[in-house]
Amino acid sequence: MNSWIADRTASFDSSGIRKVFDLAAKMKNPINLSIGLPDFDVPDEIKQACVDAIYSGKNAYSQTQGIAPLRERLSQEIAAAYPGSSRDLLITSGTSGGLVLAMLAMVNPGDEVIFFDPYFVMYPALVKLAGGVPVAIDTYPDFRMSADRVAAAITPRTKMILVNSPANPSGITASESDLRAIAKLAADKGIALVSDEIYSRFQYDEPFVSPALFNEQTIVIDGFSKSHAMTGWRVGYVHGPAEVVAAMTKLQQFTFVCAPQPAQWAALRAMDVDLSHHINAYREKRDMIVDGLRGRYELTTPGGAFYAFPKAPAHYNSATAFVEQAIANELLIIPGKIFSAHDTHFRISYAASNETLQRGLEVLQTLADN
């Protein structure tokens, strides 16, 4: 029966994060700082919009490209953010669906895709799924997304550069100058630039900047999962050059078909919901984590998302060994090797209650002191 399984499935392993989720389900009172989703619930008015859509009969497939009202509203927002730029739009089944479609639409077997290490766990797997070759650029110790590093990694087979800012797992936000330089490099070399902006609303110290401001051929992927706690609702969107979006739309017809229609109507309502108080709360949680680890852990201060990526204390042989000790103390965190070629750091998700964060910090302080 093993011969039935396609070779592509052997090119990557099951997500290590999911394994931690499974472990959490078996523990009685874990201190869970592993989950990459907001700890607040979907606002009631968004839930009601979804319920209203269901009861008013909006339960069939939508157009592949998404319901017209949501597309029109997003197009207005995009036109305001990128004046003078002609950008087509596709509603996708989450940002993960957008990433899948982007890879399948642009990456041929043997094409190289550049991204930054540490990286979102899906990136190398999706590149391989499309038959491409992942090229991870080491950004340790400061996690800076440097155009010089990108330039050094470019070969005649380079097809795409993938940028994620604010970043998962590090929470690092790329500087405007670095994004501008990467955008110009991609344009000059004729390389596709994809910007994963799912954490764009979670930026705490500087205004969010997209590389699409400096390269109008940039393919932007965003969505409602993180900003509105709609992770299970699967509504994302992509905007970019007409030719690329048309190819992705064609592929969506034969894969995801469309994003769930009731959730699309809820996303339309979500665009009018003010979540600034949640963003401010996450800024405070970030500061709580940074202050609580100061003096004990080496940490580059995260500027966005809701993750911190500290270095494991030197007296542990590896970050994996450190995480095992943390889990023995009921603290669930993610070893950095899931996101990286290095086994030196670990990821904390501070999308949790302040009480849970304080419990987690007490364990981390004890492990460092011991």
Model description:
The chain is an alpha/beta fold. It folds into two domains: 136 residues, Alpha-Beta Complex (Aspartate Aminotransferase, domain 1); 227 residues, Aspartate Aminotransferase, domain 2 (3-Layer(aba) Sandwich). It has twelve helices and twelve strands. β5, α7 and β6 form a beta-alpha-beta unit. The termini are far apart.
Brief summary:
This protein has 370 residues and is an alpha/beta fold. It has twelve helices and twelve strands.
Write the layout of secondary structure elements.
Blueprint: H1 16-26, E1 31-32, H2 44-55, H3 68-81, E2 88-92, H4 94-106, E3 112-117, H5 122-129, E4 133-138, H6 147-153, E5 158-164, H7 176-189, E6 192-196, E7 219-223, E8 236-240, H8 242-253, H9 261-270, H10 276-293, E9 307-308, H11 319-328, E10 331-332, E11 334-335, E12 346-349, H12 354-369
Parallel strand pairs: 1-10, 3-4, 3-5, 5-6, 6-7
Antiparallel strand pairs: 2-8, 7-8, 9-12, 11-12
Helix pairs in contact: 2-9, 4-5, 4-8, 10-12
